[in-house]
Design brief:
Blueprint: E1 5-10, H1 22-27, H2 31-40, E2 44-49, E3 55-65, E4 70-71, E5 78-87, H3 94-109, E6 113-116, H4 123-131, E7 139-140, H5 141-147
Length: 148
């Protein structure tokens, strides 16, 4: 039996043109530029590969201080932002595996809290995050601007 491989690797290492990213590119026009910027900045992420080497999951976490685009402000000084959280579920526990990686990282980094921006259309992700103790509390100013 083969297991999927979750790897922590540089943005410059994986294939930005993998079909896995097509939906992100369709939803977020600036996504290719964002990937390239992260690669230039030598940043890393978690990439889940299937047994054939195709990308089946992607998790980007970012340590932040002084978050200013949410109202009311986040409590504490250090925050772990879940920047990108996408996976092909395929009836597996991949979402839980990603959530565990988020919590493991938060513990190691000793952050005050973890936050994520999720759009209403991603109801499966909202339910997954709620299952593990996340709850809606803040509204991002950039989301409010997009609604107007």
């Amino acid at each position: 039996m083969f297991m999927d491989s979750l790897r922590y690797e540089k943005f410059s290492y994986f294939n930005h043109n993998d079909a896995f990213f097509n939906s992100l590119k369709e939803s977020y026009i600036e996504f290719p530029d964002w990937l390239n910027k992260k690669a230039r900045n030598n940043e890393s992420d978690y990439v889940l590969y299937d047994t054939t080497g195709k990308i089946d999951g992607f998790l980007y976490l970012k340590l932040e201080n002084n978050v200013s685009d949410v109202d009311p402000p986040l409590p504490g000084n250090t925050h772990l932002k879940i920047g990108t959280f996408k996976f092909e579920s395929k009836g597996t526990l991949r979402g839980q595996r990603f959530i565990k990686k988020v919590f493991d990282t938060a513990i190691v980094m000793e952050v005050d809290n973890i936050y994520v921006t999720v759009f209403e259309k991603h109801d499966y992700l909202i339910r997954l995050f709620e299952k593990y103790g996340f709850y809606a509390l803040w509204i991002s100013r950039c989301i409010e601007a997009a609604r107007e």
